[in-house]
Structures are given as C-alpha cells and as structure tokens.
Design goal:
By secondary structure, the chain is mostly helical. The protein has a single domain, classed as Orthogonal Bundle (Tetracycline Repressor, domain 2), CATH 1.10.357.10. Helices cover about 80% and strands about 0% of the residues. Helix 3 runs parallel beside helix 6 and helix 5 packs across helix 6. It is elongated and about 70 Å long.
Length: about 190
C-alpha cells in the first residue's frame, strides 16, 4: 500500500510483491479488501504492542501527549500515516474495509482509554469526562493531526501545543486543595443538570 496506494493494491501487485500466484490472495482471503483488512489488523496489533509499555508507564496527561508525539513521529517516518489516510478514505465507501479499519483504531483507543481511566481516577475532571468518549476524541485528534500535518505542519504543531495546554489545565485542577476541589465538583454537578 505504501508503494501503490489502496487503489493500486490489486491481487496482481500484491502477489508480485510477495512472489506468489495471485490466486492465493483469493484462496486465503476471499478478496483484496479482506487481505488489506487482515494486514491492517495485524500491523496495528504489532504497532500497539511496541508502545504498550510506554502507555503503561504514563503518569500524567502531558506524558501521554509526549508518547503520542513520539508515536506520531514514528508512524509518519515509517509511512503509516499515509497508509492510514488511504484506509480511512477507502473505508468511507467500502464496507469490507470499514470494519477492520475501525477495529484497528479501536486497538489504539483501548490503550488510550486505559491510560485516561487510570490518570483521571479521583480527579474532579472525572466528574464530567466520559472516559471512553474522551479516548475516542483523543484518537480522532491524533488521526486528524497526522493528516493535517501533511498540509500545515505549523498548524499541526499548534494543535499539539493546545493539547499540552489542556493537559496543564487538568494538572492544575488536580492540584487544587480539598476546599477548592469540593467547590469545583459542586459547580460541575450544577452545570451538568
């Protein structure tokens, strides 16, 4: 897919790259889309496994953002951002690619959700934060930044900086004293009703 794109990923080009008969694509996967979906899932599992220890060691939202920046740089350098963009575009019109692409994104989201749940436990922010929804928003933001960087590198950097500022805000809220935390929780409850 890095060499030919989704549109150029045919049974013939895949078989030629693998040095096998193209009939094997259909024999083992049924279609090119199903092969691409399986490759997407497998590659994402490998990528998530590479970063699992880093996610597990994160102790703050700013550290999570730093891991995200490192992940972003690695994925961009390896050409995975381009592949993701193509899969996302192809999944908009192809049901066979939508499910495996969503499943691959879910692998990342699950890692992010586990970190956020751990970091926000006991925080006043947890009163208003839908952690599973927030994890998906973070994942979507990173996908968006990855795609955005291709056309506006400075804008993507500003987006990262804005996320860092939000992480600082959460840290400040978490460091409030007991009286201020109770007042904040009370205001949050009022705002939610």
């Amino acid at each position: 897919m890095r060499d030919h794109g989704v549109a150029g990923a045919s049974a013939r080009t895949i078989a030629a790259a693998a040095g096998v008969n193209q009939a094997l694509v259909f024999y083992h996967y049924g279609s090119v889309d199903e092969l691409l979906g399986a490759a997407c899932r497998q590659a994402t599992q490998q990528r998530v496994a590479l970063f699992a220890d880093r996610f597990a060691a994160v102790d703050s939202l700013r550290e999570l953002l730093q891991v995200g920046r490192e992940l972003h740089a690695t994925e961009l350098a390896e050409g995975n951002v381009s592949v993701l963009a193509q899969l996302l575009a192809a999944a908009q019109t192809g049901d066979r690619l939508a499910e495996p692409t969503a499943a691959a994104l879910h692998l990342w989201t699950a890692e992010i959700e586990a970190v956020l749940a751990r970091l926000l436990a006991g925080s006043p922010v947890s009163e208003v934060a839908d952690v599973p929804g927030l994890a998906r928003a973070v994942a979507a933001a990173f996908v968006g930044i990855e795609l955005y960087e291709g056309v506006d590198r400075a804008g993507a950097e500003r987006a990262f900086e804005a996320l860092d500022q939000l992480a600082v805000l959460v840290e400040v809220v978490d460091e409030l004293g007991p009286l201020a935390r109770r007042a904040l929780k009370s205001r949050i409850k009022k705002a939610r009703t």
